[in-house]
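Title: Prediction job returns without error message
Component: structure pipeline
Severity: low
Priority: P3
Assignee: unassigned

Description:
Job completed but the reporter wants confirmation the result is attached to the right record. Sequence as submitted:
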Amino acid sequence: MLIAGFPAGAWGTNCYLVAPAAGEECVIIDPGHQAASGVEDALRKHRLKPVAVVLTHGHIDHVASVVPVCGAHDVPAWIHPADRFMMSDPEKGIGRSIGMPLMGELTVGEPDDVKELADGSELNLAGLEFAVSHAPGHTKGSVTFRMPEAADIPQILFSGDLLFAGSIGRTDMPGGDHAEILESLARVCLPLDDSTVVLPGHNEQTTIGRERATNPYLRGLAAPRRGM
């Protein structure tokens, strides 16, 4: 399997292109602010053909390049219905005080084809399987995408802004809720095998096992369970 990732734009948002191998179809995850040129570079480098864009949530740093990327390749964008409004009205989802000076640089709106994600659904795209889990807390419509273990490749969780190496997503923006993100972590992340790879991990790759042992949020959630 091929996973090509790069940080994009002023926020350094992690964008990923995922394919069974070079030269095949791919899925693009979270093409955010100023990600379009990086997406095109990765497509050319690995000879990939995109079939869909999938979004972990609707904040502008994750969706700003959806319209140009989907338009250039005539592919749909998948997003949870609770976050869909942010593609056309990002200010309501991120607030005026957080990065809004950049709004003047952005062209916002929906691509021509938008499909809505549902909790517990399975996406079969580009010959790959993605299990969708609704994981609110960072936003009301945050989701994760989990890819099953295959051959010598461990299970992979694309966590969006739910879980990072040593930390979790912020909950101080509209739609954020600390209790809700902890519930999502307990429900979506804690049951996963220790070997599950978590992407993104900020500047380093991490695993559920490492986060269970070192991340204060997961450690705090796991402690009561160990005592039961």
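Comment from assignee: result matches the submitted record. Residues 178-189 form the longest helix (12 residues).
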